[in-house]
Amino acid sequence: MSTLVSWSTVTALWIAWMVYWFLSALGARRNERGESLGQRLRTTVVLAVGTYLIFAPVAPLGPLNRRFVAEFLAIRAVALGMVVAGLAITVWARRHLGQFWSARVMLKEGHELIQSGPYARVRHPIYSGIFLAMLGTALFVGQWRALLGAAVFFAGHSLKARQEESLLAGQFGAAYEEYRERTGSLLPRLR
């Protein structure tokens, strides 16, 4: 089990996910309108910083390189499970978005308000899944810098989620407001 619960497994999962992510983007519809270049750049920088803090093999960050959790196989197994679960949620959500998915905050030609699959309960399940997988990766790394990276990554996706909310509310009006009232942003709404 210890060979399966390894950094190689974590990185292989992320690489496989990225390959799927890029290949599945090939079937997306053409962009209609969306975020400005400045908004896109701001979000990209924040996400890049978070990714660096989590994945950098050696980062000269002093006390942030200290461990916040002991190196136990059980902890790493839980962390790996979080990565698998998080990435699985993103794939499930991505498949429900289909042709309307975009890496950018964007409306596609003929955009529809997707409310099936995970979108029936959560407005941003891809961000939820990515955050769970990043948190699992940070737990696997076990250093404060990785935990900080997960928090920075969460902040970046929170910015993106607010931009999407605004764009979708403008496009779908009352239908989006009703959808927002009955769903949670990143977690299902408690009834």
Descriptive notes:
By secondary structure, the chain is mostly helical. The protein is built from 5 helices and 2 strands; from the N terminus they run αβααβαα. The protein has a single domain, classed as Four Helix Bundle (Hemerythrin (Met), subunit A) (Up-down Bundle). Helices cover 62% and strands 4% of the residues. Helix 1 (7-24) runs parallel beside helix 3 (73-97) and helix 3 (73-97) packs antiparallel against helix 4 (125-141). The longest helix is centred in the C-terminal third of the chain and has 39 residues, at 144-182. The N and C termini lie far apart (40 Å). The relative contact order is 0.18. The mean pLDDT is 89.
Please outline what is shown here:
This protein is mainly α and 191 residues long. It has one domain: Four Helix Bundle (Hemerythrin (Met), subunit A) (Up-down Bundle), CATH 1.20.120.
